[in-house]
Amino acid sequence: MPGAGKTTLLLRLRTALPHHLLVFPEAQPPEESSSDAETARILLVKARDRLETARHLARTRPDLIVASDRCHIGVLAYRYALAATDRAPSGDFEHALALCHDLKLLRPQPDLTLLVLMTDPGTSVSRRAAYADDQRYSLWFDHGFLTAYRDFLDNLPVWLPTTTFTALDVTGTSGWPTLLDALPSHLVRRLLPREALIDSSSEAV
Questions:
Q1: Which among 16, 21, 2 is positioned nearest to 170, based on CA atoms?
Q2: What's the rounded Cα separation, in Å, for the pair 155 and 151?
Q3: Whole-prediction pTM value?
Q4: Which ranges constitute the DSSP H helices of 20-137?
Q5: CA pseudo-torsion sign 151, 152, 157, 163
Q6: CB of 113 within 8 A of CB of 55?
Q7: 35-47: b (≥16 Cβ within 10 Å) or e
Q8: Which one, of 117, 103, 104, 102, lies nearest residue 149 by Cα?
Q9: Which has more confidence, 198 or 113?
Q10: pLDDT tens digit string along 156-178?
């Protein structure tokens, strides 16, 4: 969810673990594409490729933690929200969902830790207030769009019934303790001591 603190949290982890954490930044849509369907295909193929790269690194670099800022769920949530607010035909979302199935992104991933960080639309907007006047991001400040985006995340089991994930509502909390509590024990043991990761600057913004 925009404003939930994903990028901030990953940046802090990467700073704390410069030699043991690889973060794939948020995938960007191509500057030019023939259609929304093509844009979705490109982003979802990137998500599939990241999974394959992460699995390769797990075999060759067992000391490395690999993380991705957003994944196929963000692609689906965006297109669901567009359709729900009549900004795009529902077929665009259905096409992206079918692509996820074709690319095997929705099958069980027992070697994957999938965290879905959520907040309410009002908090999302307030945390990103510095960008409110930038017209390029106007959609991400529309309460109707953000409500639909959150609705999709709230109902993930309906759309992704075989996907295992941990949903975290970080609206009223600091993201760091919540995130660390949600991580599997084998990952936590590889991180720095908890007190070294949490300080006064650790709020999710």
A1: 2
A2: 6
A3: 0.85
A4: 36-60, 72-84, 90-102, 121-127
A5: negative
A6: no
A7: ebeebbbbbbebb
A8: 117
A9: 113
A10: 999 998 888 888 888 876 555 55
Q: Provide the residue count of the chain.
A: 205
Q: Are 56 and 84 in contact (CB under 8 A)?
A: no
| The pair of three-digit structure tokens given for residue 15, joined into one six-digit string | 């700073």
Question: What tokens does 101 get?
Answer: 């199935």
Question: SS in 3 state form for 123-179?
Answer: HHHHHCHHHCCCHHHHHHHCHHHHHHHHHHHHCHHHHCCCCCCEEEECCCCCHHHHH
Q: Tokens in use for 102? A: 């074709």
Q: What is the Cα 126 distance to its own chain's centre?
A: 19
The residue with tokens 């995938």 is 27
What would the two tokens of residue 60 be? 């060759």
Whole-number Å distance between alpha carbons of 170 and 153: 14
Q: Is beta strand 65-68 parallel, antiparallel or unpaired with respect to 21-24? A: parallel
96-131 pLDDT, tens per residue?
999 999 999 998 888 888 889 889 999 999 988 888
SS3 18: coil
Taking alpha carbons only, the member of 109, 105, 132 closest to residue 49 is: 105
Q: Is the predicted pLDDT of residue 201 greater than 50, yes or no?
A: no
Which residues are 65's β-sheet partners? Answer: 21
